[in-house]
Every structure is written in C-alpha cells, then in structure tokens.
Amino acid sequence: MNKDFYKILGVPKTASEADVKAAFRKLAHQHHPDKNGGDDKKFKEVNEAYQTLSDKNKRAQYDQFGSDGPQFGGQGGGNPFGGAGGFDFGGFDFSQFQGGNGGFEFDLGDLFGGGRSRVKRGNDIETQIRITFKESVFGVEKTIALNKVSTCKTCHGSGGKPGTKMNECKTCHGQGRIVKMQRTILGNMQTAVECDVCFGSGKIPEEKCATCRGAGVLRDREEILVKIPAGLNNGDTLRMDGMGEATAHGKSGDLFIQIAIESHPVFKRLGNDLVMPHEINLADALLGKDVEIETLDGKEKLEIPEGTNNGDQLKIKGKGVVHGRNRGDIIVGIKVKMPRKLSKKAKELIEDLRKEL
C-alpha cells in the first residue's frame, strides 16, 4: 500500500529540509518507545518517512513513484531496520555525534526536543492572597513572605566568595556537562547530563561562598511586594515571572498567586458594576427624596424620584469597579417598605389619596 510520507510527518510537499527535520524531531520525541505513552509502530513509521524525505534522491523518486516504487523494492513502505538488525536512519547524519567507543555520543534532548541550549529552570511556586472586597475594586499592594530557594545574595549565584578566582571544572573540563552511557532502542548511547560538581557552569571557585557553601542558591525566607491590580475577580491568578524558586546557573521559576476576595456585607459585583439594595418607606417612594448612600468612596447623594416603585433600579455613575481609566457604576435596587399598621389619621389620608388615584 502506498504511504503518504508527507502526511505522516505532517508537512506539505513543498516543505524544506529544515521543515522535514524539525517535524521528525517533534514526532520522534512524541512517539519514542522509551517515553511513557510512546508508540514503537508510529516511531518506525515516522523514521521511515524521514529516511525518504531527508534524502534528495529518495525524495525525488518518491515524489515520482510513491512508496511502492522500485526504489523501495516494491515493498510498500520498506523495513525501517537495517539488514544487520540496526536502525537505518538514512539521510539523518549522526556522524557529528560519533563517540570513541563505537556508540553514539549526543544528548537525547538534541534529537527528541530541547537540546543542549535548553536553560535550566527553577520550580514554580503557587500561593494564595486574601484581600478585601474594597481592595479588589481599587487594587492594592501586599507584601508576602515565602520560604523558597533563592539566589544567594552574597555571591549572586556564582557560588564563590566575592572576589575569588573562578577555575575550570576538572570534572567536566569546563563544559558544564558530563557524558553517561544509556541503553535505548537505538542501541548504546552516551547522554550528556549536567555536571554535578559545578552545577553546569563549567567553573569552580577557588574559595566557596560561606553563605551558600558554593551552591549559588539557598533556601531562605524572602519578602515579595505584590501589586494587585484593580478589578480582579475571586479566583483570578497573578503570575510573577522569575519570582519562583531559583536554580544554580539557570532561570528562576515563576510565582503564581491565586486571589481570594472576601465578601462584602452590602455590595455584590456584576461585571464592573456594584449592586446594592436600599430600603425606603412608602412616603419617600410616593413623594421622592434625596438620600445619602454609603459607597466604597464615602457618602454619595442619590435622588429618589417621585413615584418610585419597589424593585426599581437607580444608578450612581462612576463609583463602581476600577477598570483601566474608567469605572463602573453603582446600581441601587430599591425596596419599598410597607407599613404593617396605620393610624386612623393615616388611613383617612390614604383613603383621600385612593380617590385621587
């Protein structure tokens, strides 16, 4: 059966050699049998497609005849393994990785995503901050204290005593990485890993930092100023880049802060508006009245118009949630309080009112 190698690698027929190679790296990383969830069959299929499309002559013949053509011996896809039982990678050049003991010498990350240039990264940290309803409306600054791995403030991460000379690491010869043998489906391979003596820096100080004992990092209690912007909702998460845990000679992780907002006894939030109830008596509803409303900014005047009904909504503009340079409104839900008992005089007055209505 004729196979569509372009479809297998997920590239168009116009794909460049670089595109083909990049697609192979990604899929090989995804389906490698040594990975959890790897797929040996899919891995072989991806390799077969790469063998063909990475070789100019094979690719030209494939474009003309397909995988059932004579260049594949009419086998409808061929055997991804070489005749001696080894893996045939065709056009993929491993010569640059040849080691002195006959095995391959390279970082599996180079082939299966990542590569040696990948920067080390510290752990992310998650925490929570509780703020008041008012603070969520206007924004606030909070200082939090965290026990975390931080860059040493004495040596600034070098691991050496300030002013001391830095020498080449004798374990990794200044490379920051050492080679270890690893057995894989591709055979014995030498994998480059971080040197555990210089922590990947390639340098060793003549005198270690007394504070961190040469590690460049240490666990310490650190106070962090968090600027919480106005208008956040309960459960929102802030991300502070580089404020997570540090790692020696690498990039610090991030700090994720979940916002927990305390409820308010009066106000509820609706988008960028604040909703609140306000009770008035029957006379104020009929005749109207100016009242003072206690808002988050202080007291504000609210005009109750004549003939206000129970359930009417009145608005105080520009006193809601801050969003950018604007603010929402306060929506006041009117509740008319009906009298339970009426005096004789009140009844007479209401009877006269009924006649007018």
Structure in words:
- By secondary structure, the protein is of the alpha+beta class.
- Helices cover 20% and strands 30% of the residues.
- The protein contains eight helices and 18 strands.
- The strands form seven sheets. The protein has a four-stranded mixed beta sheet. A three-stranded mixed beta sheet has the order 1-6-5, with no helix packed on it.
- β11 and β12 form a beta hairpin.
- α2 (17-31) runs antiparallel to α3.
- The longest helix has 15 residues, at 17-31.
- The protein is elongated, with a radius of gyration of 36 Å.
- The termini are far apart.
- Mean pLDDT is 82; it is low at 73-117.
Strand-helix topology:
Blueprint: H1 5-9, H2 17-31, H3 40-53, H4 56-65, E1 104-105, H5 108-111, E2 125-131, H6 133-138, E3 140-151, E4 166-168, E5 177-184, E6 187-194, E7 203-205, E8 217-228, E9 237-240, E10 255-261, E11 268-270, E12 273-281, H7 282-287, E13 289-295, E14 298-304, E15 313-316, E16 322-323, E17 326-327, E18 330-337, H8 344-356
Parallel strand pairs: 1-6, 2-10, 12-18
Antiparallel strand pairs: 3-8, 4-7, 5-6, 9-10, 11-12, 13-14, 15-18, 16-17
Helix pairs in contact: 2-3
Please tag this protein with its features.
single chain; 357 residues; alpha+beta; four-stranded mixed sheet; three-stranded mixed sheet; 8 helices
